[in-house]
Amino acid sequence: MKAQTDSDVCPWVSKFAPLVPTAGMVMDLACGKGRHTGYFLAKGHPVIALDRDTTGVTAFADNPACKVITFDLEAPVLIDADHKTMTYDAQLPFYEQELACIVVVNYLYRPLLPLLSQSLRSGGILIYQTFMTGNDVYGRPRNPDFLLKPGELSETLNRDLEQIDFFEGYVDTPKPAVIQSYCGRKP
Ligand SMILES: C[S@@+](CC[C@H](N)C(=O)[O-])C[C@H]1O[C@@H](n2cnc3c(N)ncnc32)[C@H](O)[C@@H]1O
């Protein structure tokens, strides 16, 4: 397997990784090929790597510090009558897990946002970055379901977390895009 280098890692993640409690459990949610899984493993954290398609992280499967979970985050247990609220229960594999950190990069499923803080332990860190409104000019995603609204991460996550930093706007690296980035701590 290719060695994990810091250049593979989202700079927003490496900026706030030092805030994660030492040796605390990290969840790489929608982990893809596991660039952040490898990054946190190398920093001495146990990691849960979750994705609906975990073929990208098979190389980590033999690592005793890594738990790979294949799970569809968009298959709710219960949808309320007006289809506005989706409810998960203990079947959500990270529900109330007392995680030291959750990392989400380039993935959005709105019903999950309020649930993330419930899975963090006190002092746990949420590091989130994904695309927002305006990104459609530069490329995918263009579907509004996958694009954050202005201020959305702050507004939603600050109900349960103490915001450490927030950014939204245009970036030109690693490619031109409009993104939103959030880091917060569970009180
Ligand atoms: C753009 S990739 C980002 C991967 C990784 N977070 C990164 O930044 O390198 C989006 C990931 O979300 C995962 N994904 C999409 N829908 C999902 C779902 N319903 N449940 C779980 N994972 C999903 C995809 O399989 C893919 O690996």
Output the keywords.
187 residues, two-stranded antiparallel ribbon, globular, alpha/beta, 30% strand, 7-stranded mixed sheet, Rossmann fold, binds S-adenosylmethionine, 13% helix
Structural domains: how many: 1
- CATH C-level name: Alpha Beta
Amount of helix = 10-25%
- Measured by DSSP, the beta-strand proportion falls in 25-35%
Describe the structure.
- The chain has 187 residues and is of the alpha/beta class.
- The protein has one domain (6-185): Rossmann fold (3-Layer(aba) Sandwich), CATH 3.40.50.150.
- It is built from four helices and nine strands, in the order H-E-H-E-E-E-E-E-H-E-H-E-E.
- The protein has helices at 11-16, 35-42, 113-116, 152-157; strands at 26-29, 47-51, 66-70, 78-79, 86-87, 99-105, 120-131, 162-171, 177-185.
- The strands form two sheets. The protein has a seven-stranded mixed sheet with strand order 3-2-1-6-7-9-8. It has a two-stranded antiparallel sheet with strand order 4-5.
- It is globular, with a radius of gyration of 16 Å.
- The model has no long low-confidence stretch (mean pLDDT 89).
- S-adenosylmethionine binds next to loops.
